[in-house]
Amino acid sequence: MNCRGCGTPLTLSLIDLGTSPPSNAYLRAEQLEQSEQWVPLKVQVCQECWLVQTEDYTRADSLFDADYAYFSSYSSTWLAHAERYVAEMVERFGLTTDSRVVEIAANDGYLLQYVAKRGIACLGVEPTHSTAQAAREKGLEIRELFFGRETALHLLEEGWAADLMAANNVLAHVPDINDFLSGFATLLKSTGVATFEFPHLLTLMAGAQFDTLYHEHYSYLSLTAVQRLCERNGLEVFDVSELPTHGGSLRVFVQRADGVRRALQPAVQHVLDVELISGVKTPGFYATLAPAAERIKHELLRFLLQAKAEGKRVVGYGAAAKGNTLLNYAGVKPDLLAWVADANPHKHGKFLPGSRIPVVSPDHIEKEKPDYVLVLPWNLLDEITQQYACVSTWGGRFVVAVPELSYR
Question: I want to staple 408 with a disulfide (CB 3.0 to 4.6 A). Which of 51, 254, 387, 398 is the partner?
């Protein structure tokens, strides 16, 4: 395979997680009698542009289909993050009711609803029908499309040249990352700004966050790699912020390379220097994740087997993609994890891909009073422990597996 960023042949492996089904391919009851599509989950590193990427086995349109079950609005933490983002962008870039905002991967309207409340014209591009429909129900204008240069040209003809383009947690999800970025250079006004948010490769490695590796994530991003990608596609990075979301993310600010140029902020060079010192451009930096993943798998299995031997009941919380990577890599099935509760009603009554663990309403937690609740989306641990503080009243405990097994 060649690098999807620069075309260089890939020879350096980050990790091989065996095979698994796509992490958001939740099963309905009638599908339990059918086989699932299990495909290799291997991640490689380009030693030319240092883009970390999955090997190609699955098409985007099969991963992000009409039944796509990830809805952003079921996390209060994420909604608050989106509302703060809108307020900050309005203030920093002087957005008014004459401005135009376009969000790529608008999901269920979790962010654009706050733009619309300010009377600013906004448009969402979202390829998954389930979430696009939820956004429309909020009164938002949504185009059900995959984004790239061709889509950008059509939107430009319709008058959607953008003052601000937002792209949260989508840059990692696109197979043709050059075409995707070229679309931003096409649709932005000469004075426009685009922001990309994505989990930072440095925190992924430092925190052994191997469970964030799954088929829907084609790329794993450092600022080093993103800067090269932007330059190749007519964009320039002029600022970056470090965020706590998703275990540690970057928000990268870009502008058209041929447009009105804002001053390069010192934060860009700072993050690039930190990445360089950390070893992002050296093969040795990437050697630690595979043994850490194996250690985490063994710790989790020891905990689950011991709990079962002691007659303790363990359930999960959060039917998240990262949880599916962890459970399938570890080979966990319903005999060790009875069910997983999730706030998203679109997942209730379904089964996790691969492990086929049932997904239930959070009401089951208080009804069944389990001894342990394994929190799969560990990045939301504080939110979840606050929402379900009742667990402590019967002596139950919350558990996370990444980066190491710990209790709360």
Answer: 398
